[in-house]
Amino acid sequence: MFTGTCIVYVIVVLGVISRACGVGLFPLMRYLKAELLVALSTCSSEAVLPQLVRKLEDLGVGKPVVGIVIPSGFSFNLDGSAVYLTMASLFLAQAARTTTGPVGPLGRPLTDEFTGLVRSMN
């Protein structure tokens, strides 16, 4: 189900956006094939950031735009991962029926959320 949702999102949502911008989605994906494969296989886009910046500049995207958008997207991705890990740890704690600790019922969730936010900062 998740994979199907991702495929529909890429084809429909990104397809509409790329068509509105005058860019073909599949030609762009072919152009960025190596970067997409590395990011997918390593589960991290950090390894391909320099190549992605260079390729986007070669396509004509302005250097200031690439310099803001690509690093910002990477940082937001880290924040999303930190929130996901925090929610997953809270789910596991509830499933295992662990105690919340001496601070009360909000102590554990707040500690986990704070830890997750600190982890996401570079």
Low-confidence parts lasting 5 or more residues at pLDDT below 50?
Answer: none
- What share of residues is helical? over 70%
The end-to-end span amounts to 33 Å
> Treating each run of at least 4 consecutive H or I residues as one helix, how many helices?
6
Derived structural class: mainly alpha
- Tell me the Rg in angstroms: 19 Å
Spell the H/E element sequence: HHHHHH
Number of strands: 0
Oligomer: single chain
Q: Work out the strand percent.
A: under 5%
Description:
The chain is an all-alpha fold and 122 residues long. It folds into 2 domains: 1-31, no CATH class; 44-120, no CATH class. It contains 6 helices and no strands. The chain has helices spanning 2-20, 25-31, 33-42, 49-58, 63-95, 107-120. It is elongated and about 50 Å long.
Topology of this structure?
Elements: H1 2-20, H2 25-31, H3 33-42, H4 49-58, H5 63-95, H6 107-120
